[in-house]
Give the backbone structure.
Amino acid sequence: MDTTGTLIMPPAGSTIASEVDWLFYLILYISIFFFVLVVGAATYFFIKYRRRGEIAPTSQVDHNIKLEIVWTVIPLAIVIILFFLGFSLYMRMNIAPKDALEVKVTAQRWLWTFDYPTGINSVNELVVPAGKPIKLLMSSNDVIHSFFVPDFRVKMDVLPNRYTSVWFNAPYPGQHNIQCSEYCGKGHSEMLGIVKVVSDREYTEWLESAAGPGEGIDLESYGEQLFTSKRCVTCHTVDGSLNVGPSFLHLFGENVYLQGGSQVRADENYLRESILAPEAKVVDGFEPVMPTYQGLLKPRDIDALIAYIKSLGQEQGEQQ
Amino acid sequence: MNHSQSRPAYLAHHFSDPAQQRDASKLGMWIFIMTEILLFGGLFLAYTVFRTLNPDMFYNAHKHLDLTLGTVNTIVLITSSVTMALAIRSTQVGKKKQTLIFLFSTLALAAVFLVIKYFEYSHKIHLGQLPGRFYTYTGIEGTNPHIFFSIYFTMTGLHAVHIIGGMVVITLMVVRTFKNHFSAEYYTPIELTGLYWHLVDLIWIYLFPLLYLVG
Amino acid sequence: MNTIPEINYLNHPKGIKSWLLTLDHKRIGVLYLVSILTAFLLGGIFAVMIRLELLTPGRDIMGPQTYNQIFTLHGAIMIFLFIIPGIPVALGNVVLPLMLGAKDVAFPRLNLASWYIYIVGALVALYAIFSGSVDTGWTFYTPYSTETGGAVVAMTLAVFILGFSSIFTGVNFVVTIHKLRAPGMTWFKMPLFIWSIYATAIIQIMATPVLGITLILLALERIVGIGIFDPAMGGDPVLFQHFFWFYSHPAVYIMILPAMGVISELIPVFSHKKIFGYRAIAYSSFGIAFISFLVWGHHMFISGQSQLASMIFSFLTFLVAIPSGVKVFNWTATLYKGSIWLQTPMLYAFSFLFLFTIGGLTGLFLGTLATDVHLTDTYFVVAHFHYVMMGGTVMAFLGGLHYWWPKMFGRMYSIKWSRIGTALIFLGFNVTFLTQFVLGTKGMPRRYYTYLDQYRPLNFYSSVGSWILALGFIITAIYLIHSLRKGKPAGNNPWGGLTLEWTTTSPPPTENFQTPPVLTHGPYDYDTADVKPTI
Ligand code: HEA
Ligand code: HEA
Ligand code: CUA
Ligand SMILES: [Cu+2]
């Protein structure tokens, strides 16, 4: 299997990918054939029969039943074949093997959450064992999104009122991009994620470390890790620049202006509330689009994030 | 044939004779009527989708429509179609006074229809049987009964808009009849108004069983 | 020497009022022409802004919210204000009655009314743009469109109004074609442009009302929350997509059929040859129109619709490709042993053949279920539809404009500059959009404000292409406007055409013909009729 991709296709990261590519190239060759046939002939006629001065005598044949039947029936036969090839592959892409590992996917503006059967979850990072069929059962908390992994050639809309699913089997360890491909607003192009295909052993290790996270490191650095791994980084910065959400630089201890005119001091409790119930106090000038992290973070994670945000404020204090 | 002398005033310059003009107008009207049917077609489709999804709810909800008022309104509209047809007939035979009487009766019947509709609507509004978000009524079993009322109000509302539109056009015809625009030779506008009015009637004939007689 | 007739529809009667209240189909056509070109310019400016923003990843000239509004406006303006009215209202209005040998369309007042309705629709759209704008994409998908801020209701209202304009034009043309043909013009002596306008009008009449009701429901959903499309209230967002595409798929054939009609005129005239397969071309328009109503679900293969539905839609999608293929083959066959005159309209016809074939064939990748899963909602789709809409319809529109320009305004444009313009547009177009096919297969989703670093080089080339394209259009605009005053008088029949519009003066008088025309030959009978180009 080819893992670097061809000139126009991305690397083939799943078992189904090479089959899709095969069909893609088949259609491509058929298309090139017809393109050359039509445009090649037209170009040739344009050059050969170009008018040089006076109008040359022209053939006035205006139909030819045999020819017309040929160019109706042959394309018809071709497209019927294409239809069957496309349809049978599509069915195989849609019906997941029975023994597939099932992961629940929740999409919301603008991040992906993955819930594993063992009860742990991850944000924007899907870790799966290599060589096993994986089935994703997906739903959305707000608008329609679409789960797309180009390297796997899979894509499926994620809807608010029902479950949809995709499955894939990634035979080799490696990393693949997830991109949201149904327009969902401001953060649509940054609703990205990663599929990490790992060996069985790494997968078990990961499950364990995700279950008992951040042990052995201090809260601040663990919070810094979470800031990226829980995707706060999608909307927040730590350098003072504005993104979808406010920056965390010098946030701690500041007076925050809220929508509706009131003010609040950014202490630990405010930060905690902002993470778990973001819509309770909305910062002035921003839209209430931050998802709640209720259930996604353990108590220690929240402590760590707060410690990290605190560290960003203290720096300034030292400088002054 | 010399056009310039035999051309009646109502014949537009780009038509060669009255028959051509009349045919053209009628064809145009028929096509327009087709678009109207398709406009409602979309709503009928939405109706079908949600009725298939929640047959019980539809059944329960429809019992809250007033069958008597609905039936009366059906009769009123059918009668108005008859008076409209009679109005056309009277113009064709050149009886201006009769035409006016029939046009006025059509208008009156249309008004009756709207008044009855008004009572139906205000009763529902009073009970909170309103579309979607405003639905507050609690007496109907089944999932999402507000959708039935969303569909009911959208369909009958759009139909009522058509009734009002029709009344405007009929009033225009009354004025033009007064001014002697029409004659036994030229009555296309009235005829087209009639076509339109029959369409409005016809749509109700479909709405009535679908909404009031679910079973 | 050719001269401009002293009294023609352009200069008689005079004054702004005589234009704004005109019932003359040619003047209404000119009003429409100016209107849709303005829309095209606006849409094009938005397009160039899109490409500027996508020059590099991250912010270049605007933020994500603005970007989302810009591509929505680009799509909505191009579709609803430019390409759907497009060829029928501008070129069709002017030449359809002339080609039929009629004095006017059947309902001149309705014709003027549709222009005013169009303008009202455009003004409401402008209002929507300035009062909060719209960021839903031109497809208005729920539930996003019912939740987001901005002037979505105003925009749906605008599109609703524009729909009326479209319906009225359709009704008018159908009746005109039925009732106002010159003596001797039987159905099968009609020029193919008329056939295609007829098929288009049928789609307009049948599909537009469904869009109308969809927009009413969407607006009601936003205003009073009727809950039909809102999942939170038991509604179904996918139902909206069905409604939307039930109109918008046939709408793509509203865009392409008139273009195909124009090409069917250009190729025989500039090859001085009978068109090959007249009946096949005429019937295939109706084949396309009919099947086009049954394929809408191919936009929804991954939307969650049932697999059975996807299967049926995929199959029907393939069927609709066949009549298009028939036309393409017939045009090519017409070129065979012709006497091909490389004038600007013919260069555009060639561009059409080249670009539409690519656009259409890439439709096959999208109609095939398994490959569409990978390609849908990526730049592959973006490239596909620009190849058919811009490469197909806009090329044909420009070809038709250059072909009928001397008839409409009585003057010729600079042949040299028009060739330069055509070449730049053709080149710039391919640079802009050929790259996007690869971006799509590589997996870049559409409607992306920023993108992964791996897509950087191709996006850069695509943006450069858009500048070449813009340059081509600016040149085109300049020489066309220049020709209005300074161009050489064109004469009645500069290209040697056989259809009836070439028998009257350029520009024609208000009543179209000095004497009512009587048909003596078919539209493409170059073997018997004796005509010669005069420039
Ligand atoms: C002018 C407009 C136009 C035209 C003419 C077409 C023509 C076609 N389109 Fe396209 N299409 C659009 C405009 C158009 N399209 C738009 C705007 C969208 C996206 C909207 C959005 O999402 O925003 C779209 C999207 C779109 C999709 C959905 C993609 C997705 O979102 O996943 C599909 C899928 O089937 C499709 C298919 C086709 C096909 C099969 C044709 C066929 O009709 C093409 C037929 C022509 C040929 C095939 C070429 C000539 C034929 C030959 C040379 C003969 C040999 C041929 C054979 C072997 C068959 N189109
Ligand atoms: C008719 C339809 C049409 C046309 C012609 C175009 C033309 C162009 N389009 Fe667009 N496009 C759409 C319809 C069209 N588009 C639609 C429907 C969408 C989807 C929107 C959505 O997702 O909701 C889209 C989306 C779209 C995208 C994807 C955005 C995204 O998904 O994030 C991009 C990106 O490159 C793009 C680029 C362009 C470019 C560079 C042109 C160029 O070809 C433009 C060139 C034109 C000019 C530069 C104007 C110059 C004009 C003059 C100077 C006046 C001319 C006067 C005379 C000729 C007399 N378009
Ligand atoms: Cu989520 Cu786009
Ligand atoms: Cu389509």
Chain A has a mean pLDDT of 86.
